[in-house]
Amino acid sequence: MKALQKPVATVMWASVLLVASMALLVPLYSDEIAMQMARSRFFVEGGHLLNLLPQCRDLSLSVPLSWYPGAAVNAVLYAGAGELGLRFRGIALYLVWLSILWTWAGRHPQTLLPRLSFQTFVLSLNLLGVVPLVLILARSEQLMVIALAAYCLMPLHGAVTRHDHLAMRWFKAVMFLILSSVFLLAHPKALFFAPVILVSCALVFRKGGWPWMAMLPIVGFMILQTFQHAQTIGQCANAPVVSQMLAQQTLDFRLLFSQPMNFVESALRNLVLAPGAVLDRVPVTTSFQSNWLPSIDAPEFAPVLLGFGKILKASLAAGGVFLVAFVLVRAASDLKRRELSAESLLGLALLMSLLVHASIYSVSIWHFYTPGLIVPALILLLMLAVRGSVVTAPWMRAGATAVACYGWGLALVSTAALAGLIAPELVRLAKADGYVISGQPLSTPVFLSADRRSDLRALAAQCGIHDGDPRLVVDGSGYFAFPRGRQPINVLYVSSYAFGADIGRQLPAFLKKIDSSGVIARCEYLPADLIGKAAAAGSMCCLSKAQLLQE
Question: Which of 388 and 90 is assigned the larger pLDDT?
């Protein structure tokens, strides 16, 4: 085993770098652009965030007081990014996440595996199936998993002690508040992880004395503000279709009081179905949900991918069941000794959060990006559960070695499948140099030539559209070409192509009502009556403000 440690670690890091190189070619999915618009414009929008659904409320979204630090961090991190810049940021955060795990595993007190073997095993868990390409997406899950790692690490390696100077205590308190602000702003589902936040806070500040335990009610207030904000943005009285869509994302808590048995039955059904919904999104397949990756036109590989996918899903399911049982057994063992450790408390809090997430969140919206949160959370659970043991029997070390080798094998086969089948398709699409990606209608190309960008500016000039025009309706390419205008409108959120069913054919009147400066987006995203008025260049259309006002 010792002789293999360094070669295997080298191969695994080479796999990481290979996948990261491939990731540069992955087109930007529509959610990444939506997140960029909603989260990066805090300074541009004068201390407000951007509301993506103008049919629900004003485009300018007030920021809860507790979100200000997180909004500033997001603006610094993402503002000004173009297509390639946004992809680079996603890859950078992916490497930050892996570096955190690698460093933590190197300092981990576990005794089941040699240090380097354990580090490599933890690294390999991030290379299973399509998980690495999900982890590079510039979505809210990236900051959430890094924050969850910080919530686990701070009590173990950065807790306040009686020997800390006052300045150091204040520094830790401010850092915890900034961390919580970033985490809670990332996505409303951060609320499911409230147990982790509160347990981490209590463990970090418990030895600082009663004054520092005031951090708990402060963090509780931040959670409450986030819950209130989530309730506000979850309502859309003027758009019943969107309102229903938002309501269906989670169980209705009012049923807990009016129809408790129905609520419990629905929660249990979600809990039972959720693991399968997550596992189905992990393997490399010939086609992908929402076409976020290109389909593989190689039917001869379909049976092989299907077989490996079944092995991968069964392995992850078995590992997940064992991990949950192990967390509970370790916690029970601590309770028996009346020494519930910080690792056990954090592990139980994380497990509770995952169970609440699975129970409350609707299974129908566990999309392809779901493993980007759940798999890292399970890795953190593993790090908390497999801590130092007083006695490690030889059979336990042998079993851990076998599991590690098996995990390495799954990771290497997954990487080979991505490199051999997905990478060539990504290269082909990157060379196409078009606004529309064949077979991926919701994606935006990362690479556009200078000629294509010039064509887009020339088209915009025909419609009198300039960079800086407010309330411009844009698609992905349009947003990155004209980023300076205040309150841009994502076409997918107002067009019936996606979330604009309540607006429908009334889109011109709606855009007139909210004083839009015009439209520059893919023609396919627009209703037929707007396409008839538009100036077009290939697959892109534009309309001036005057054209929108025409009856």
Answer: 90
d(C-alpha 178, C-alpha 74), whole Å: 11
Instruction: For residue 292, give the nearest of 23, 27, 490 by alpha carbon.
Output: 27
Asked whether the beta carbons of 408 and 14 are under 8 A apart, the reply is: no
Contacts for 286-291: CB closer than 8 Å, 24+ residues apart: 288/130, 288/368, 289/367, 289/368, 290/29, 290/367, 290/368, 290/442, 291/439, 291/440, 291/441, 291/442, 291/443
Per-residue burial over 302-325, b if 16 or more Cβ lie within 10 Å, else e, is eeebeebbeebbebbeebbeebbe
pLDDT at residue 396 is higher than 90: no
CA distances to 23, 133, 232 from 427, in Å: 11, 15, 43
- pLDDT band of 389, cuts 50, 70, 90: low
3-class DSSP assignment, residue 133: helix
Pairwise CA distance, residues 345 & 333, whole Å: 12
Per residue in 152-209, pLDDT (tens digit) is: 999 999 999 988 999 999 999 999 999 999 999 999 999 999 999 999 999 999 988 8
Contacts of 111 (CB under 8 A, 6+ apart): 388, 389, 392, 397
Pairing status of strand 443-444 against strand 28-29: antiparallel
Q: What value, to the nearest 5°, has the Cα angle with vertex 507 and ends 86 and 532?
A: 95
CA of 4: how far to CAs of 8, 104, 354, 402, 517, in Å? 6, 21, 35, 13, 62
Give me the amino acid identity at 359. Answer: S
* Residue 18 exposure: Cα atoms within 13 Å on the Cβ side: 18
Q: In this predicted model, which residue has the larger pLDDT, 468 or 387?
A: 468
The one-letter code for the residue type at 535 is A
In the block, tokens 């279709």 appear at 241
What string of DSSP letters covers 261-279?
HHHHHHHHHHHHHHHHHHH
Q: CA nearest 191: which of 233, 244, 153?
A: 233
Q: What is the C-alpha to C-alpha distance for residues 304 and 421, in angstroms, rounded to an integer? A: 12
CB 430 within 8 Å of CB 452: no
Among residues 385, 366, 351, which one has the least CA distance to residue 279? 366
Residue indicated by tokens 């590989």: 301
Question: How many CB atoms within 10 Å of residue 148?
Answer: 24
Q: Residue 147 pLDDT > 90, yes or no?
A: yes
DSSP letter string, 509-538: HHHHHTT--EEEEEGGGS-HHHHHH-EEET
Helix H or strand E encompassing 328: helix 302-336
Task: For residues 85 and 19, give the distance between their C-alpha atoms in angstroms, rounded to a whole number.
Answer: 17
For 200-228, what is the mean pLDDT?
Answer: 93
Q: For residues 51 and 495, what is the distance between their CA atoms, to the nearest angstrom?
A: 15
pTM of the model: 0.95
* Cα–Cα distance for residue pair 301/422, rounded to 1 Å: 12
Q: What is the mean pLDDT of the chain?
A: 93
